[in-house]
Write a structure and sequence with these properties.
By secondary structure, the chain is of the alpha/beta class. It is about 35% helix and about 20% strand. The chain is elongated and about 60 Å long.
């Protein structure tokens, strides 16, 4: 659990149509000495007025509510008064796509309401930690991502001798959307880790594929890494890059969490360093913690080109900041320059002997 930060308490607004849920969340969150639940709201219209009047540091938000659903409200909120928001919802397999859309719309994180798999106590501990992270997150006005018309994919069919590897965590859904929608259809094959639960990654990949010129899919063991294709590590599995002759492919493996994460960026980056070396380009994006820093450093030492998202455009400057601190990133760039820089690195990366 994160240590208690010093200073003023974090002001939280709880938005949920259930009076019982509001009561439980208020009681549980108020038990943390550094959190002050300033109010509850039964629907987005009441929440809007309370946000204007009380200026909370963090909002917890349900999805299914009367008068306006939580996702629509979240998009309005991020356009008019960006506020760190955590969606707390009953995420069934059907609803997990809504959770991905919430992250795309600007939510810092998503949690599942208590059910058979998660208790009130578990939710409270997780939510308190995530509120502390969210309170430090930088959020800005967001606009829906559009493709500007139907996507025509013209990716090549042969294997590639270039590899893109990307790691992200908190704020990564929006960051990855911004990066991958800038990739051309024949961009080098890409492998990526986004810290995300198992129920989310398949829908996240499908959503990205709808938006991008490249094809995006949740990875399966043995999948080839091809130009114009992006493989997303599935939740609850580590992903490694492997090679057979000229063919790059991925392996999904078990093992304990690394940096409390599964999948972990370091597991992927370490394998890319060993297997692809100078043929790789690595990027570390917004996220809490230090996952990816040592792996990106291993990639750089192996001859790969490396970069990190800058602090100004990172929702949380933990992972890219740690990478910069240890000298893992040779260049730091704003989010809107990440794809461009990766493509430029690829163009001048010499092929391994």
């Amino acid at each position: 659990m994160l240590s208690q930060p010093s200073g003023k308490p974090i002001r939280v607004l709880v938005v949920d149509d259930s009076a019982l849920v509001r009561q439980i969340l208020t009681r549980e969150l108020s038990a943390a000495p550094d959190i002050d639940v300033v109010a509850g709201a039964p629907d987005p219209y009441v929440a809007r007025d309370k946000i204007v009047a009380l200026k909370p540091d963090v909002v917890t938000l349900d999805v299914e509510m009367p008068r306006m659903d939580g996702l629509t409200f979240l998009r309005h909120l991020m356009q008019s008064r960006p506020t760190p928001t955590i969606v707390v919802s009953s995420l069934t397999p059907k609803g997990s796509r809504s959770a991905v859309e919430a992250l795309e719309s600007g939510a810092v994180d998503v949690l599942c309401k208590p059910n058979g798999a998660i208790s009130v106590g578990d939710l409270s501990r997780q939510l308190i930690d995530k509120i502390r992270i969210a309170a430090k997150a930088k959020v800005s006005a967001r606009k829906p991502v559009t493709t500007g018309g139907p996507i025509v994919r013209t990716s090549m069919a042969e294997t590639t001798d270039r590899i893109f590897a990307i790691g992200a965590s908190t704020g990564g859904v929006q960051a990855l959307t911004a990066v991958l929608t800038r990739f051309p259809s024949n961009a080098p094959g890409c492998v990526l880790v986004q810290h995300m639960p198992a129920a989310f990654t398949a829908n996240f990949a499908r959503r990205l594929s709808d938006l991008c010129q490249v094809n995006v899919s949740e990875a399966k063991s043995g999948d080839s890494v091809l130009p114009g294709h992006v493989l997303v590590a599935p939740g609850d599995h580590h992903m490694r890059l492997a090679r057979s002759g000229a063919r790059y492919y991925v392996e999904l493996v078990g093992g304990p969490p690394v940096h409390h994460q599964k999948p972990a960026v370091d597991v992927l980056f370490d394998s890319v360093a060993k297997v692809a070396g100078v043929n790789a380009v690595g990027a570390i994006l917004t996220g809490m913690g230090a996952d990816g820093a040592s792996g990106l450093l291993a990639m750089r030492k192996a001859g790969a080109r490396t970069l990190a998202q800058d602090e100004a455009t990172s929702t949380v400057y933990g992972m890219p900041g740690e990478a910069a601190k240890v000298g893992a990133s040779e260049k730091t760039v704003p989010l809107d320059k990440v794809a461009e820089t990766m493509m430029a690195f690829c163009a001048i990366t010499k092929r391994a002997a």
